[in-house]
Amino acid sequence: MNSKEHIKTIILVLLVLMSIVLTYMVWNFSPDLSNADSTPENKRDNTKPISKPGTAKMDSTITPFQIIHSNGEKTEGMPATGHAISKIISPLKDKDIVSVQHLKRNHNLIIPELSDNFIVLDFTYDLPLSTYLSQVLDIDAKTPRHFNFNRLLIDQDHEGRVVLYAISKDRHQVVKMKTSVKGQDVNQSLTSLKSDMEKYTEIITNKETIDKATHIFAPKKPKDIKTYRMVFNIINVEKMNSVLFNDSTIVRSAQSGVTTYNNNTGVANYNDKSEKYHYRNLSEDEKSSTNMEDTIGGTFEFLNGHGGFLGEDYRLFSTDNMSGELTYQRFLNGYPTFNKQDLNEIQVTWGEKGVFDYRRSLLRTDVILNSGDKKSLESAESVRSGLANNSNIDFERVTNIAVGYDMDDRPNNDDIEVQHNSEFTPRWYVEYDGKWYAYKDGGLE
After folding, report:
1. What is the DSSP letter of 264?
2. Nearest-angstrom CA–CA distance, 338 and 319
3. Alpha-carbon distances, residue 100 vs 28, 97, 213, 333 (angstroms)
4. Positions in the chain short of pLDDT 50
5. Which of 47, 329, 378, 424 could in theory staple to 317 by disulfide, Cβ–Cβ 3.0 to 4.6 A?
6. Bridge partners, residue 104, by sequence
7. Do you know which Pfam families this protein is assigned to (predicted)?
8. Secondary structure letter of residue 50 according to DSSP
9. Each residue of 82-111: b (16+ CB within 10 Å) or e?
């Protein structure tokens, strides 16, 4: 009997010792991954951009959406194509700011010294003046701290030197900058664009837009605007993951067409039905993203560095000074495009040192087809009248009336590879209370 108990005791001790040894081995186990293809270092070596990097330029991405020439009673304008913007801002680049004056008004902005012959560059977003001068125009100047603008006037003084007026979004502030630029250089650039300009009209919506410096400008009677069809292919989601994740990812879940990827520093969701991708960087701080002076340059370099603009005409379209989110939007022939599913947008929020949040469609243009059709739109006056007479609309909240392309997304699942065919049709769009809406029959869709 004692012998049996003695044997049981020995077996129990051996089991305990074996458990201790196995636990130690698990804790200290280090696998040999020298030949594995999925190691972090190997993954970083094989990381490839989603398209050719560095194809976008700052001055064609941080850019206005229209160019206006106001000359007395005559107003002409055009969408801000890449060629047109390059022509207009070229004489301004790498020049000197002689003096800076910051003016504030409690009511509507009036600039007494503004001549009757000036150029307007209209932006769809708030932009730090220091960022535009330094990163787009290559001008080093001391400007009011954190001053934002969304309209730039190019005027000339009596000595023939160019004077710039950067006007704030609320139309109550302006920064006047005298430059070393010769007015004749700007005149030559403007003359070269005259054949592409059409008649524009001036619209007053509230007390902030009653002066010639603050009117809303829109094409008087848009006509013969081409329609297009685009065929898209799809960026491989693994390419996106390789760009954004520093090491290997884990597929956490895949259900209802949505796949989630994550590692220790980030998480991404991909919807294979909408082809939309959303990445969140867990190592960045959202609260650090509201400094637009850093955010605009940071997001541009980030997107351009991994080919995020896809070699296509994406431009900054909106800035949210509260959340720090920037939206880059697809343009076509100088006109902004709009899509109800946001398939034409790239949305980025910057952190302290890198991207915090990144959303985009993985659709990439494969073929652009000119349908051959041309469309004329109703007059700007008809749009203005329709909005002003709509009892459901507060006309004073209208801040822009412009032509854009409606991107009507039409997925085609008949092929082996899923393709998207989209019609791009011109129509009127209205910025109302800070958001853009399609105009239809006197109302907003």
Report:
1. S
2. 16
3. 66, 7, 18, 35
4. 1, 22-45, 414-417
5. 329
6. 173
7. YycH (PF07435)
8. S
9. bebbebbbebbeebebeebeeeeeeeebeb
DSSP states of 19-47 as a string? HHHHHHHHHT-----TT-TTSHHHHHHH-
Euclidean distance between the first and final Cα of the chain, in Å? 92
Burial of 174 (0-12, 13-18, 19+ CB in 10 A): buried
Give residue 223's pLDDT. Answer: 95
Q: Which residue's entry shows tokens 């400008």?
A: 217
The C-alpha atoms of residue 35 and residue 107 are separated, in whole angstroms, by 70
pLDDT tens digits, residue range 146-163? Answer: 899 999 999 999 999 999
Task: Estimate to the nearest angstrom the gap between the alpha carbon of 388 and the chain centroid.
Answer: 30
DSSP helix/strand/coil, 275: coil
Q: Are 307 and 376 in contact (CB under 8 A)?
A: no
3-state helix, strand, coil in the chain (%, to 5): 25, 40, 35
- List pLDDT tens digits, range 249-297: 777 777 778 999 988 889 999 998 889 999 999 888 766 677 888 889 9
The residues that bridge with 153 in the sheet, in sequence order, are: 120, 165
- For residue 220, give both structure tokens: 């008087």
